[in-house]
Amino acid sequence: MPKRVIVLILVLFLVIGSSACGLLRQDKENASSQGSEPVQETQANMRRTVFYFVNEHDLLVPVTKDIPWVEGIAKAALENLVDTPEIREELKMRGLKPPLPAGTKVLGMTIRDGLAKVDFSREFLNLDSRTAENNAIQAVVYTLTEFPTIQKVQLMVEGKPLKKCPNGTILKDELQREKINLEAGTAENESGKVPVTLYFRASSSDGNYTYYVPVTRMVKNSDDLMRVALEELIKGPKEGMGLSSVIPSDTKVLGISQNGNEVIVNFSKEIEGYGGGVETEQALVNAIVLTLTEFPGVEKVTLQVEGESGVLPEGTMLDAPILKPAFINPANI
Predict the structure, then answer these.
(1) pLDDT given at position 26
(2) Which of 61, 126, 134, 261 could form a disulfide with 299 if both were Cys (CB 3.0 to 4.6 A apart)?
(3) Cα–Cα distance, 247 to 250 (Å, whole number)
(4) Do the domain assignments include residue 10?
């Protein structure tokens, strides 16, 4: 076989192999240190940004896409949440929709000491249910707090602080990330319970776009909350939410420990009984890593099976920690 053909085959193999990795980023010896900025592999003058859109089951979904890097980039990000014919068409093929009503304008915005004050036009209030109101509010808060300079958000409409929406949703003066996609029928402030964020898989109705959805589940408070979160993840999502889990329900968490920014989890052998397939195996690992890296200070996860750091059935190497994803649900899938 000519050398040129052999080289081309090798190049194609490497390209295909790297694109199949999805969210997985393993921490080899020369990996960047914790706290370093993620490399934004995007075109010049574009910023890779995480937005929160609404899916067919009224759940908020983080989606990563590139937008032009302009002055006032946070304000530009909010404008991408507004229902326009262009954005609606772009999201439609993925089974998603924008969370802010058509005609909504960002009249002003300031950022000071980690607090973003956003003034919307009155169209922001044109939402038909509490669910829609809550999704709009959380989409704004979560999208803005993806920016490192913003930790809290205050919402205003036509220059006045927004205290209560037309359908009854009450707002705090300062909003922050909390209880995204709270499971239906759950008491938000039940005594002795705390929220954990679990990541499940979902797909558009045509099956062409698969993505991960963060869900808040209230659980009994515990000194070992990471273990509790993993055990809840193994139980799977509630019915009727359009979500799925690929982790076998008989999987056991044999041990969990934390060393600095790394969490080491030891699973029973049942975790390997997910049914096979590279995509399914990747989804299993991603759901675990995304769930654990929701805990403060956790940047990477090491997985073990029966105490061994070997290889999963479809070839996922467990010999190195898996880094927290810099971005989630790329829009170009």
Answers:
(1) 67
(2) 261
(3) 9
(4) no
